Task: structure prediction
Amino acid sequence: MGSGSRFALQKWRATHLADDPLDSPERRAPARAPRAETVRITNREKVYWPALGLTKGDLIDDDRAVSPLLLPHLRDRPVHLRRFPDGIEGKSFFHKHAPAHTPDGVRTVRLARSDAEQSIEHYVCDDLRSLLYLVNLGSIDLHPWGSTVLSPETPDRLIFNLDPVAAGFAATVRVARELGKRLRGIGLQPVLKTSGSRGLHLVISLQPSYSYEQIGMFAEAVARLVVRDLKEIATIERSPARRGNRVYIDTLQNRRGQTVVPPYVVRPVRAASVSVPLDWDELDVSLPPSSFPFTEVLERFQLRGDLAAPLCEQAEDIAPAIEAIVRSLGGGDGTP
DNA sequence: GTGGACG
DNA sequence: CGTCCACAACGCTGG
DNA sequence: CCAGCG
Result:
């Protein structure tokens, strides 16, 4: 690591960590004094990743260290947990209802279900204490919504999930490049990241102006155009059997109540990898997405900075992009 | 991993 | 007190 | 109608 990046890290720490990372002054009553970290962590020694010998304590330590990078992608969002109380090879379950015994200090929000028949109390992970509490429950990857509690029905994230299935990573890279090019061509700036599993994600930060349904339709239309150009290697076919060896461009995550794996979250996979943002010029066949176990992410941050920061810094107006897509679909270039 | 229900 | 159990959910598609 | 899918 060069001194330049060391300096960048220090500067970043100074602005992001401050004295009390638990406090978020613009939205909270001023604290009298920084509060001690009071979350009780249990079973630190339990092995979560047997192949690597990594424990729950290792995960907790990593989440604490990476929290300034991760929390901005969780803040104000309903979050679903996926819990692995006995590590990645044990039983797991999703958990979305925040029970009545949820401690004070872990925010929850009651939202109507999509059918409006009932409402559900959701967790919201706004700060380090909440993060550690939720991870102590056995959560490995947290799954935030693509919209915030401020306007739950209008997403501020647009996600394309490229799943290689049997297509291989080289084809996935080609599809990602093409999709990225097309999105930039209609004025959007997608952030590229590994899924932490096998695939790649392209994520766009949106002004929350459209419904999930509208955003989902837009995403599918874009995916359709990419498939038109790359028929041999890309598909939006939902049935796995009919995908063949093509990369699946999954746009179904742009739906209410669906979730989007955020940058910097650890995945419950053997390699203990993280969903890591990439520079577009890093995108290469030689970069398998299982790269970057959580043990290497801070080091990578020191070299590359926070490549996901744009997602939290600027929200894009998608209206011109929608118009452009409508034009190209209606433009009579062969699509019935 | 943990609280609540059951016996 | 020891055990057992729950811990999401929804529209779409293919069969 | 049910099962699989994400």
Q: What stands out?
A: Confidence is low (pLDDT under 50) at residues 1-25, 27-34, 332-336 of chain A. Residues 42-43, 46, 83, 85-86, 99, 101, 136-138 of chain A lie near DNA strand B (CB under 10 Å from a C1'). The helical segments of chain A are 3-16, 56-70, 128-136, 169-185, 212-229, 297-304, 309-313, 319-330.
